[in-house]
Amino acid sequence: MGYQYETVRLEKGMYGQGGRTFSQTLEALDPSEHYKGTPLEGMDAFQRQLKRFDIRVKGAGSDRVEKFFFNTESAVLFPEFVSRVVRQGMEEECILPDITATVTHFDGLDYRSIASTPTEEEKKLKRVEEGAAIPQTVIHTQENLVRLHKRGRMLVAPYEAIRFQRLDLFAVTLRQIGAYIGRMHLEDAVNVLLEGDGNDNAAPVLQVGEGAISGSSGQLSYGALLDFWGQFDPYTMNTLLVGGDMMLAMLKMEEFQNPMTGLNFQGTGKLTTPLGAKLLRTSAVPADTIIGLDKGYALEQICGSEVTVEYDKLIDRQLERAAITSVSGFAKLFVDAAKVLKV
Question: Is 158 contained in some domain?
Fold first, then answer.
């Protein structure tokens, strides 16, 4: 019995067809649902094409890079392989899903988000008497556009230099490129949390030892964290973003040395604070700074494009100057859902 994937004609034109990715175009030509109950169930259309041309991309027995270029059709698969491995690098240890409330896919470079800025009185859900007007929540578009940024790296590797390299080894470098791009996107997200997205919505800044935050300036205490936590009503401070200096300061606190907190950290590598907030460390946060946020209401991620590679160059083995890019941006949703504590 023959399978449909064995007869699909692969060509360059499958990239960027009507705004669809290569995988989406390939899936439309060779739907995975047709393989239910067969030995190929669980594979997507791209993985079936790798099987068709007997290209092994993982493990000690992985093929060499040149295996993709044994014929013109299998060469079409190479840019998608590069794109997938770069995405894998972006997703490894990525904390963006832990700080974004929603992801919006948008085809363009300038995006206008929506916002709702109710007053304290408008936040109250009062009882509505018979015949009385129901209180309103006004949602409006932001005045200024959110700029999306293209982030990427240039792949400089003459084909002659990598053709005999194993694909799993080549993938290590591609994953590193993805990690670099992901780190840049995270820096953009942190900057929007701190400074706003251009719509006068920077996060409120609270200083240790001033106003509602107890303690002495320059010293982080558990009491200061409790005061910071108390500033989030009606939101919930369920996520803390810190740099290395603040992470060490917290870990040295007696309250963070609770046996259950330490057991969870030692077993999973994930630290939950005694306040119930997830603690995330990143070098994108400035020194002496803690960003607290309600993950469900603070930040919107706008994806202008997935990982994009210059497929013409890759298919034609012109790797010397092939760009790998990703377009993304961030918008603030509710201003008070994120606050900054300066120590």
Answer: yes
